[in-house]
Amino acid sequence: MLERAVSALLSPPSRAFTAAIHALPEAVCVRIANKSWRDDPRCPRFADLAYLELDHVTFDGEIARGELVVAAPLARRAVEVFRRLYQLGFPIRQMKLVDDYDADDDRSMSADNSSAFNFRVIAGTQLLSQHALGRAIDINPVENPWRRPDRLLPPEGEAFADRTTVRPGMIVRPGPVVAMLDELGWEWGGDWRHAFDDHHIAWTRAL
Fold it and tell me: How would you list the strands of the sheet with 200-202, edge to edge?
């Protein structure tokens, strides 16, 4: 399985990885207000969030610039994840703020968009998601769908329900991406028991 997991990777890029961490620019505050960010006492303040600009490898093997909003204390850890993914040659379809989809998680997933902060509850519950705190990141949700025996999301990920045939952009255990996440201390949703959220990674430790 480990050898097959290498099929999730492309050739590592020759150009060095670059990233930038910013306090939320005013334009980003305007962009996320009343979408992923809510006027709710439980929602992180703008000052508690960070805006990241990150290089990533595309499925065509090119280099693109992506963006994420995460909890400010998590910013460097998040950058390190994407630096490692870049060095592995792991392709990412696109990385836009979920606000480009009006903070609609279903639309963002269907577009195979990788995103992070979104003040929302866990689907089907009243519990805040780790995304609501800027502590979770979704990566390639089409190639890594949320799965239960009776349901799969997004529907566009149906072709990736079989996790034994590993293709570019998939996250599987055993494999180099999950090994890296383990090393860095991130939780992977593919390890959950009652549903498998292969696109979900979260920082559940103290910051």
Answer: 136-138, 200-202, 187-188
What's the predicted TM-score (pTM) here?
A: 0.96
Q: What is the pLDDT of residue 124?
A: 80
Q: What is the DSSP letter of 13?
A: P
Q: pLDDT under 70 in the chain at which residues?
A: 1-4
Nearest to 29, CA basis, from 21, 20, 38: 38
How far is it, in rounded angstroms, from Cα 82 to Cα 188? Answer: 15
β strands within 82-178, DSSP E: 136-138, 146-148, 151-153
Distance between CA 168 and CA 170 in Å, rounded?
Answer: 6
CB 88 within 8 A of CB 176: yes
List beta partners, residue 19.
54
CA distance 20 to 4: 33
**pLDDT value at residue 189:** 98
Q: Where are the domains of the chain?
A: 2-202
- For residue 40 the two structure tokens come to 């709710």
Greatest CA separation for the chain: 48
From CA 170, how far away is CA 125, in angstroms rounded?
A: 28
Residues 8-67 pLDDT 10s: 899 999 999 999 999 999 999 999 999 999 999 999 999 999 999 999 999 999 999 999
Q: What φ, ψ does residue 184 adopt, rounded to 5°?
A: -85, -10
